[in-house]
Each structure stands twice: as C-alpha cells, then as structure tokens.
Design a protein that fits this description.
Length: 202
C-alpha cells in the first residue's frame, strides 16, 4: 500500500466524519429552532362548588349542623337547590331544625326563596308540616306570609288545608291579625285575616 493512498483514505474518512458532524449539527439547530410544545394543563375540576352544594343539602337533611357550617365556609351556596328543586332551608323547616335554619339564614339563605315548580316558600313548608316554633322563627326572621303558590294558596291556606294543624293555623292567624292591626293597608297585599274561633261558653 502506498503512503499516498493511505493519506487519501484518511482525508476521505475525515471528510465523511466532518460531513456527518455537520449534518448532525444542522439537525440539532433545526430541532432547537422549532417551537417547544408544552403539555396541555389538566383542566381544573368544575364540580367542586356543585359538590359542596350537594353536601350542604345532604348535611341539612341529616341534621348535621357542624357539617352544614363547614360546607358553607367551604363555599357552598346556601340558596342552591337539589335535583327536585329544594334548598337546604326548606329541609330544615320541614324538620323543625331552627338551629340549622339560623346558620343557613346567617350565611345568606333567602328566607322567602320559592320553588320553581310550585312557588312554595320555607314558611309554606312549615305551615304544612312544621311545628309552632318553626313557624314563629320564620315569621320573626322575615318570612312573608302574604306570598302565594302557583295555585294561589298562602301559608295560612296550606295550614288549614292539611288538617290537624290547629297550632300552625293559630300562629299564622295571630301574626296576620297583628300585621293588619299595625298597618290596615297590609291586607291589600295579603290574605284577609281569619277570625279566631273561640269555644262556646256554657
């Protein structure tokens, strides 16, 4: 083998290596010049507040005042409704839980919020199924006795309609009578007061 041939071979090998290095460099520069695609961030859960609302209503139905307070502090909407359109305050009224009602109202529950289906308010629920203390609590905290359902019934109408509700009827009748006495014009926006029935004297 001639020395010249070895030199030529070495030059050819060096040129090939240089060409490969140049190609690798161009590929690397091309890759670096391409915009880097960042991974798409995972979407934040959108059901957190909804879950808190559901937990609030569930806690109210379970009579758990500590959990009710915790849900409200975690961001639950006190006026949110469940699948049947009822909010926590309605359940508390039906259960005669004035302690739960107090927490809910203090945290912003609308004491006169009506259902979409029948336009029934917490006072109407209490008039139909609640006890005297629940009715009195609602009235003392701003419940509107003059509101009517979609069928035109007031809380007093419902108390009388459901039967065996003498206490509810008496509470509402007395409250309406007092309201009319304080402002005779109030009767124009509400039902006429029902006269109290006195037992016959022998």
């Amino acid at each position: 083998v001639k020395l010249e041939d070895l030199g030529a071979s070495t030059e050819q090998d060096g040129s090939a290596v240089g060409a490969q290095a140049g190609l690798a460099g161009r590929l690397l520069l091309g890759a670096l010049s391409q915009p880097i695609s960042e991974p798409e961030p995972e979407p934040l859960p959108e059901t957190e507040v909804v879950d808190q609302n559901a937990e609030l209503i569930a806690a109210t139905k379970n009579g758990d005042v500590t959990s009710v307070y915790r849900c409200l502090k975690a961001g639950a909407d006190p006026n949110s409704t469940d699948s049947v359109g009822a909010m926590a305050l309605w359940y508390a009224a039906v259960m005669n839980r004035t302690d739960l009602m107090d927490v809910l109202v203090r945290q912003g529950a609308d004491i006169n919020q009506a259902t979409k289906s029948s336009a029934s308010t917490p006072l109407m629920f209490a008039a139909s199924w609640g006890d005297k203390s629940t009715l009195e609590w609602l009235l003392q905290h701003g419940a509107d006795w003059s509101m009517r359902t979609n069928s035109g019934k007031t809380s007093l109408d419902l108390a009388m309609q459901h039967g065996n509700r003498p206490e509810a009827t008496a509470v509402l009748t007395a409250w309406i009578a007092q309201a009319v006495e304080n402002d005779p014009l109030v009767v124009a926006s509400g039902p006429p007061p029902v006269p109290c029935q006195h037992p016959h004297q022998h």
